[in-house]
Amino acid sequence: MSSRLSAISLAAFCGLVILYFLNRLWDHISYSIKTKKYKCGPLKTYPHWDPIWGIDFVLSMSRAFKEHRWLSWMEETWAAQGTKTFKARFLGMRMVYSSEMENMKAMSTSQWEEFVLEPIRVDNGVATPFTGKGVSTADGEFWHYSRGIIKPYFERQAFANVARLKPFTDKMLDLIPTNGDTFDMQVLTRRWFLDTSTEFLFGKSRDCLTYPEREDVMLAMVDIMRGARVRLTMSKFMFLHRDPKWYESIRFVHDFMNEYIDQAYDELHQRKEQGEKFVDKPERTDLLWDMVQKIPSEDRILLRDQITAVWVPSNETTSIHISNAIYQLARHPDAWEKLQKEVLDLGDEELTFSKLRGMKYMNWVINETHRTIPNGIQMIRVAAHDTTLPRGGGPDGKQPIFCAKGDIVHCNRYLMHRDPDYWGEDAAEFRPERWDGLRPLWHFVPFGGGPRICPAHILVATETAYVLTRFCQKFKGIEARDERGYVPVMRVGPSSLNGVKIAVTPR
Fold it and tell me: Which CATH number fits domain 38-116+162-213+227-236+316-506: 1.10.630.10, 3.40.50.300, 3.20.20.70, 3.40.605.10?
């Protein structure tokens, strides 16, 4: 009896294997037929030794992540293909990898509704139970709903509230040693960002510049992002994911957020009940307070999802961008001197939004930092139905390419930002002066573009300019103290594995 069951099991297994390979064969034939039907050129294929599952590609990428050389791995992999666009298998799924400006433009503007996010941000459960639908994860009507809640607030605060940064920046600058000792600017900007972002989001600062142990919530967010990246890589095998620390970090961050959310709804209820008795209490300007007035209290998880959809993409990105700019300035004394001059020319003028946005060299430094070390390495979307993209096909890569429904497309900002075809032979160098008179098109999109452009892009630029200006006003000299250089460790974007070790000279 047992031998008969074994024979049946073996036959069933062999049948499933045959069906799978027949499905792969039909997918290949169908893809080729549709490529011709849509008048597209053939797309170069990564030279797999495992063309079915793409295990070789997965292992190569995973090893690069583990060894903190993912950025150089991308440069090497694209160079080896000899093209800006190619396709590869990743655990059986077809992926399209492109550093073509025209593809970025199409996916961001004219075809933005054809390339969607929800299947790889929500439907696959990669971030469950941490978060659900929000402005950075949803599509369609729900995305419009989330965007309508978030965007007006960010636009208003970016212009109106520069003064809120002063006490946090004062505290951070006061913690910098002025006796020539080496310190890590990346740590200080990380704590600064947690303090400013918690006040901005929840109306109350975490105050971890004073109490460093309170950055535990930021470290928990890092664990959550790490786990989500692992789950995304596991793809169809996500059900095998076992990471108690990941779930523990989720519970910790949820508890942290729930406390603020409950307090906000309680305060809203009290204000409505007491009316004019609350008139002397300062009006709150944080995002949470704005949202509790739009989302009913019975939908608290929905509200939390809206905030995590903002907090996750911005987690550490502003602080890392600021520390990356300081990393570059410490290694480029000419740029530091020019920035110093522009800042000192301001004198004692108040640092308003318009004043910061009008600083020409400051904006060059900010743009060049985004270009050389972008926070968002790539834009990833899924083809909602059979469609095309304008570049990458044929022998010269100039013909359109076919994207089948379900294909995952990666548009690589990092490579576009360093492409000599777009930036010249010195594309890998940090040179703010290149921005003099430059009006880049879709090869420079640090915050994306089109309808889904990051709602906080103006806010990030304003905060960065404010901190760098205050830093220049307080210190006349800056010296790099880390000989190991920039080793990118991946979080939301790259940050320096070794920190940003510098020393300063006070005025």
Answer: 1.10.630.10
